[in-house]
């Protein structure tokens, strides 16, 4: 992508990829999570196809995928629109995430292969070498395979994986982008991640579950604070 394109709105940049549908999905997801496509915005297939420089067919498939990720919804007699993120729904999402992801971590302690644990450790080592961002990363190419997702994928339960990565993951990304990066969490999270990996490597389900619960509660407390602070400013 050229330097001039980087400064243009996401929805005004033509798609330049061989994997057209994937690229459209990625572009629209970034626009939704960043707020460029605001919650409640009605989707005009014609206008989007023109701005992205694609035909209606790949765009419709991309919208179908985003609907599956709960980022797009279809309203009878209205059409497709961007899902609104309501702070009132946040508690439900956080509660579901805490229960299911701690379960996934518990299962992963016995299901995860030695090589997967080594890969997870290498992932953390690589993250430690990167500078701490001053703001949330809009779209990390490793996002689909980040620390939490790797553990979920290794839990051995297809049902749990489907629920977490289809119904919870993308909404959590959207909420997390709406919150500022906490310096305290940026400092504590890597230490907590390392402790979780150590419990996984020790094949200790109880400790892995306990540490993941503590980790999520710290992260969720920060999200709640930031959401409350942002509402006070509105």
Can you give a write-up of this model?
There is one protein chain. This protein has 234 residues and is mainly alpha-helical. It folds into two domains: 3-82, Orthogonal Bundle (Arc Repressor Mutant, subunit A); 87-233, Four Helix Bundle (Hemerythrin (Met), subunit A). The protein is built from ten helices and two strands, in the order ααααββαααααα. The protein has helices at residues 3-6, 20-34, 45-52, 56-68, 87-111, 114-128, 147-153, 158-178, 183-201, 205-233; strands at 72-75, 79-82. The chain is globular, with a radius of gyration of 19 Å.
Features:
single chain, 234 residues, mainly alpha, Four Helix Bundle (Hemerythrin (Met), subunit A), 10 helices, 3% strand
Tally of separate domains? 2
**CATH superfamily label of the largest domain:** GntR ligand-binding domain-like
Strand percentage lies at under 5%
**Record field, number of beta strands:** 2
- Could you list the spans in which at least 5 consecutive residues all have pLDDT below 50? 134-144
Structural class: mainly alpha
Q: Any idea what the radius of gyration is? A: 19 Å
Helix content, binned percent: 55-70%
CATH topology of the largest domain: Four Helix Bundle (Hemerythrin (Met), subunit A)
Helix and strand element order: HHHHEEHHHHHH
The CATH architecture designation of the largest domain is Up-down Bundle
Output the strand order for the largest sheet.
1-2
Main β-sheet, in a few words?
2 strands, antiparallel
Instruction: State the name of the first-level CATH class of the largest domain.
Output: Mainly Alpha
Mean pLDDT: 84
Distinct helical segment count = 10
Distance between the termini: 35 Å
Name the shape in a single word.
globular
């Amino acid at each position: 992508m050229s330097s001039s394109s980087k400064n243009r709105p996401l929805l005004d940049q033509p798609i330049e990829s061989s994997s057209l549908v994937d690229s459209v999905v990625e572009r629209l997801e970034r626009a939704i999570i960043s707020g460029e496509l605001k919650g409640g915005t009605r989707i005009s297939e014609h206008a989007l196809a023109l701005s992205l420089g694609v035909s209606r067919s790949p765009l419709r498939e991309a919208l179908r995928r985003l609907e599956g990720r709960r980022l797009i919804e279809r309203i009878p007699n209205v059409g497709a629109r961007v899902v609104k993120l309501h702070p009132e729904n946040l508690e439900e999402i956080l509660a579901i995430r805490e229960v299911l992801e701690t379960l996934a971590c518990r299962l992963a302690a016995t299901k995860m292969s030695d090589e997967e644990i080594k890969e997870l450790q290498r992932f953390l080592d690589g993250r430690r070498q990167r500078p701490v961002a001053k703001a949330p990363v809009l779209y990390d190419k490793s996002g689909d395979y980040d620390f939490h997702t790797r553990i979920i994928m290794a839990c051995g339960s297809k049902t749990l994986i489907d629920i977490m990565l289809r119904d919870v993951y993308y909404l959590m990304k959207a909420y997390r982008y709406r919150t500022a990066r906490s310096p305290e969490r940026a400092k504590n999270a890597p230490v907590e991640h390392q402790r979780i990996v150590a419990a996984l490597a020790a094949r200790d389900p109880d400790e892995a579950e306990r540490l993941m619960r503590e980790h999520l509660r710290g992260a969720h407390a920060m999200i709640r604070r930031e959401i409350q602070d942002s509402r006070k400013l509105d």
